[in-house]
Amino acid sequence: MSGAEVELETDRCVASGQCVVAAGQVFDQDDDGIAVLLAERPAPEHLDDVREAVAVCPAAAIRLLER
Amino acid sequence: MNRIVVVGASAAGLAAAETLRREGYEGTLTLVGDEPHAPYDRPPLSKQVLAAEWERDRLPLRRPGELAALGLDLRLGTAATGLDTARRRVRMADGGDVPYDGLILATGVRPRRLPGGGAHVLRTLEDALALRERLAPGRHLVVVGAGFLGAEAAAVARGLGVQVTLLEPAAVPLAHAVGEEIGRVLSRAHADRGVRLRCGVTVTEATGGGVRLADGGAVEADEVLVAVGSAPNTEWLAGSGLTVADGVVCDAYLEAAPGVYAAGDVARWLHPLSGTSLRIEHRTNATGQGMAAARNLLRPEARRPFAAVPYFWSDQYGMRIQAHGFLRGHDEVAVVEGALDDRRFVAAYRTGDRVGGVLAVAMPPAAVQRWRQAVAHRAPWGEHVRVTV
């Protein structure tokens, strides 16, 4: 666990699946391809992958709030 | 390196600026944008914004606090007008001169227009808001160009009760991009929703009350949207010494000259996977290249070619279209999952003896990801594809 929290706006999601490619431990997709958050507070070792997911999301649907 | 300038404040420029900070760059970071807005997202302009589902407050790519945290020397509403690579300075429209040690060019593209006047284009927030204000039930919109942008706008307008005529110069919409068979399947969706699709029609002029055609005919309309492609914003680089040929010409690392990189819609680079020089106007390409250009600029000793698998999506009439890899110039198309008639399928594109690209319509993520992998690994065609259309 870490202090960082992931925020996902599913109504922005375009089902690209890029977040799953970047951080498969933290994101999955439902049957329609819409991103699903597996861990709201990802483990510290996954934070770099989440930052990558934030950066590559084509819909700007993911935020990482770091405290 | 103490002074880095990023010219272009949209997706590619923002990704570059963010990556520079994430990778530990602490020097002066200037981000120049000719639009007055903080970096915002363009794909929703032809979808949620045009449909009036989203207001402008949903478009910024980062919140004000996130942007402030980057510690930028942010120059919005100011165009770069010239580049002196010998003295390493960017000239600005306001008369100033910004020096740099490293430079990233991300000035994007602008829409092509028609001769004449009174027609809309769709690239900026203002473009989208101006068009949306004119869309109302019973009005007639002519869309010139049935590419993905024109098709999305047509779909939204139909959803708003607007009469839509879609004019396309090719015999089949999108045929050059996705092949004739798939182009035909995708364009059937327009006919189903009552869009008048006219192919093989060349438009010569916007007249204010519609458009004039090359065969002497005309189409009257309340509004005209021109969606006939884009031109890279490179004029300001004249005399800079950079090679410009339908984009800023770069090597595989996105470098255009020593210490000068390009990213996004404006960059033409040598793609290692395809072996050809490409310019790609996809949202994900902008972000990926912004990140890659930033890393290569900052750490030239560890630089890597930009070899991401191209990806784009489109939404029309609730039909989600996703494509990975290289579709243009393919040798063969095969439906490998689902069925064309259901408008629910994966089509694979053969280039040589490899799976070069895939296009999925309304398919579950597992199928899309499986085929994305095949593209990423340039899977041998014969081992993966059996059904052929």
From TrEMBL, chain A:
<keyword id="KW-0249">Electron transport</keyword>
<dbReference type="InterPro" id="IPR051269">
    <property type="entry name" value="Fe-S_cluster_ET"/>
</dbReference>
<keyword id="KW-0408">Iron</keyword>
<protein>
    <submittedName>
        <fullName>Ferredoxin</fullName>
    </submittedName>
</protein>
<keyword id="KW-0479">Metal-binding</keyword>
<dbReference type="Pfam" id="PF13459">
    <property type="entry name" value="Fer4_15"/>
</dbReference>
<keyword id="KW-0411">Iron-sulfur</keyword>
<keyword id="KW-0003">3Fe-4S</keyword>
<keyword id="KW-0813">Transport</keyword>
UniProtKB/TrEMBL annotation, chain B:
<keyword id="KW-0274">FAD</keyword>
<dbReference type="InterPro" id="IPR036188">
    <property type="entry name" value="FAD/NAD-bd_sf"/>
</dbReference>
<keyword id="KW-0560">Oxidoreductase</keyword>
<dbReference type="Pfam" id="PF07992">
    <property type="entry name" value="Pyr_redox_2"/>
</dbReference>
<protein>
    <submittedName>
        <fullName>Pyridine nucleotide-disulfide oxidoreductase</fullName>
    </submittedName>
</protein>
<feature type="domain" description="Reductase C-terminal">
    <location>
        <begin position="311"/>
        <end position="380"/>
    </location>
</feature>
<dbReference type="InterPro" id="IPR028202">
    <property type="entry name" value="Reductase_C"/>
</dbReference>
<dbReference type="InterPro" id="IPR016156">
    <property type="entry name" value="FAD/NAD-linked_Rdtase_dimer_sf"/>
</dbReference>
<feature type="domain" description="FAD/NAD(P)-binding">
    <location>
        <begin position="3"/>
        <end position="290"/>
    </location>
</feature>
<keyword id="KW-0285">Flavoprotein</keyword>
<dbReference type="InterPro" id="IPR023753">
    <property type="entry name" value="FAD/NAD-binding_dom"/>
</dbReference>
<dbReference type="InterPro" id="IPR050446">
    <property type="entry name" value="FAD-oxidoreductase/Apoptosis"/>
</dbReference>
<dbReference type="Pfam" id="PF14759">
    <property type="entry name" value="Reductase_C"/>
</dbReference>
